[in-house]
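Incident review: delayed structure delivery

Summary: a single-chain prediction request sat in the queue longer than the usual turnaround. Root cause was a stuck worker, restarted by the on-call engineer. No data loss occurred. The affected request and its eventual output are reproduced below so the record is complete for anyone auditing the incident later.

Affected input:
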Amino acid sequence: MSKCNTLLRWLAPLAAILSLAACYGTLAAVALLGLLGARVVLDEALWAGSIVAFALVAVVGLILGARRHRTLWPLAVGTIGAAGIVYTMTLSYDRSMEIGGFLLLAVAVAADWRKSRSCAGPPSDILG
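Output delivered after worker restart:
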């Protein structure tokens, strides 16, 4: 597998965007439909589950990125952000923790993307 020319490089950014879209995009769509007079009933467990699933897939993408560029801090920051998202979606909802989790995940994904662009050397064995 080529280190620079791989579709897996897109995993973390796409999953983070999908997690954000699942959260705030769904909220915006429901609000807009409500303004238009349509009544929408959401299964909140399914909604939260999709947000969490995409956030965890983003962390998997960060793991793959850490193996490519041998820098662990984006993975650590992204994991903390995803943990905040998981906590707020499953245990106790807190808007500031939710926003903080998404911000940390976004910073980690951006840093991972930037590091992955350099493409120097073979994949690392730091994670297995």
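Verification: Helices lie at 11-35, 44-69, 73-90, 95-116.
Action items: add queue-age alerting; document worker restart procedure.
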